[in-house]
Protein 1
Amino acid sequence: GNSVTQMEGPVTLSEEAFLTINCTYTATGYPSLFWYVQYPGEGLQLLLKATKADDKGSNKGFEATYRKETTSFHLEKGSVQVSDSAVYFCALSASSNTGKLIFGQGTTLQVKP
Amino acid sequence: EPEVTQTPSHQVTQMGQEVILHCVPISNHLYFYWYRQILGQKVEFLVSFYNNEISEKSEIFDDQFSVERPDGSNFTLKIRSTKLEDSAMYFCASSIQDRGGYEQYFGPGTRLTVT
């Protein structure tokens, strides 16, 4: 079945450090891929998405490229800020279903000043 | 900006009691979802709903669960007889479309504690 695997956290970085959160997926067909972010006390917000192979999603300095050959969608940011501290979820929506999202386990990012 | 709202933010109930979790999706959205997240675990899909029908449900969504859109604006999740293992954060989401990478907008969640 379809699944998403994220690197385990927590990830602790100093401000302005480079961030990578790894995400790989298993899916039939051509899923859409997403990164959602959850700030403390809030719901999940879409951070970025990609709907086909080699697409790059980007938002707020974050980027992720849909790599079909490695079934990956790693999240990167060149210089993190304290305000980026949150939980990050990788997710997929398979091409043949009702839009349900399948999530990875989430990675907590803590950025220290 | 339109947002999905959920009430209550925290619900405490005794095992065996019925609970109803409330959600108000974004007004022009047509697809509605419930997810849950047990503490420390991943967010899990429960059910999707479109055109007043369940379009897909997970194995978790057994006969104890039901969903309803009673009045065209609210979307509710009912658990008939709660168990300890139902303790989790429940998220409602809505979307204007179900395919093609359309964004699902999530509410802030209801934390359900079953004692």
Protein 2
Amino acid sequence: VQLVESGGGLVRPGGSLRLSCAASGFTFNSYSMNWVRQAPGKGLEWLSFISSETDDKQYADSVKGRFTISRDNAKNSVYLQMNSLRAEDTAVYYCVRGGIFDYWGQGVLVSVSS
Amino acid sequence: AIQLTQSPSSLSAFVGDRVTLTCRASQGIYTALAWYQQKPGKPPKLLIFESSNLNTGVPSRFSGSGSGTDFTLTISSLQPEDFATYYCQQFNSFPRNFGRGTNIEMK
């Protein structure tokens, strides 16, 4: 099982980024997926969930209305569209498999700063 | 939203010590709780799911217990590689909140 995030970087406040997570080594369309982040020196924060067939999506209050999760089962990928970014969104973002969070990507850094 | 309170926030221990970490939920979550270990610069690693089920490949010195609102993670004999931060997470409902973590340091 491998999860590889990409798309991070430095962005100005108010800007947008789209994170991608490429999955391999398992039957992607059988698993729900999640995004979790960790601000520098802080704890873990669950952000979003998407069911295997995309019919259920959930968000943390801190990102609801600004972030959108999606997936493409044909491409074995899950995405996080992040709009209206704030300084407090600066963090390492992890892509995480399934209902029991058994596999995590290595993470991608998003820095929001002017 | 269900809040998880971990205690202590940090502890110092010797290699070989028996260590017990606690996670308390703000409302009952049955056994829908997981524990993770995280080392600096690395993603978290799943140790325990459904309160007491050891994830594949996790050493048997780790064990979990509890139901409802009170949960524990026990390390029966602390090893040098166990010095890390440990998080609990609830799976009873969304948002899938984490506790703030317990950092285990070497004494």
